[in-house]
Automatic annotation (TrEMBL):
Protein name: Phosphorothioated DNA-binding restriction endonuclease
Domain of life: Bacteria
GO MF terms held by the record: DNA binding; endonuclease activity
Keyword terms of this UniProt record: DNA-binding, Endonuclease, Hydrolase, Nuclease
Domain HNH nuclease: 180-232
Pfam families in the cross-refs: DNA-SBD_ScoMcrA, HNH_2
Cross-referenced InterPro entries: DNA-SBD_ScoMcrA, HNH_nuc, PT_DNA_restrict
Organism from which the protein derives: Nocardiopsis mangrovi
Span of domain ScoMcrA-like DNA sulfur-binding: 3-148
Record has Nucleotide-binding as a keyword: no
Amino acid sequence: MDWVERIAGIRQWSRSGYRAPHKPLLLLYALGHYQRHGPAPIVYSAAEEQLGRLLKEFGPPRPTTPAYPFHHLTADGVWTVRSADGAGSPGPRVGRLRATDARGRLAPDLADALADDPRLLGRIARSLLDANFAPSLHTDICVLAGLALDAADAVGEDEAAGRRDPRFREQLLMAYEYRCAFCGFDGWLDGSAVALEAAHVRWRAYGGPDDPANGLCLCSLHHKLFDKGVLGLAADRTVTVSQRFVGRGGSARDVVLALSGRPSARPQPGFSAVDAGHVDWHTREVFRSPARAMPAADPV
């Protein structure tokens, strides 16, 4: 049995590009738990807070609960849930999962396969990350899920770049003349651009193409903040900053908060501006709305 393919085919609610990575996040957490504790069960009440953090930080910007994947993943044959009395899952309600001391674990045949093949866990985790999240978020997800991938299993921007169109980064940086579209950073080292990255507006995991009309040249910091939903784009291509972002120091004010309402750079002639449909997707699925109001102009 090819467990990587089987897990990749797990049913997720989806419609018109909406993100629903609840089951993948639970599986990544379960894989991290397996690394530390083997096939021991995961008690819902003990894991609820950490699972909730994973969903809040890396799920879509809509209210959700870890009870949903904890119960519904049982339908996919890779996860089992039992109550303290030995009965099956009591359902997706938080109160019932707590009251029955529900506990979940990887299906026995999957746990056996992980024990037989030490590299399988990394392959499954890599597949889940690539299929559901922007590369800039992979390391942060692993840390919060308690998942340790060795060097051969590491995932991130460099590895993802090997699977994307190799011309995407080159074209995008050229389109924006090797400057961050948000802050104008244009650093070079020994003749090469440094800390400038090709950011997808609509993630590749959700059908975003390797096309300049789906990209921005961003510095490393603003790329991460864009993928986390701190920063976004309005319909007129001005930068939006989430009201949920808190930064009290001068650096946060100058580097993040001051971007609110600032026009993002346009690509040079000959390259397409970011497509409105991709901007809409990012606003709906990634940006942590509402946006901050534009700062008032100083009185003359």
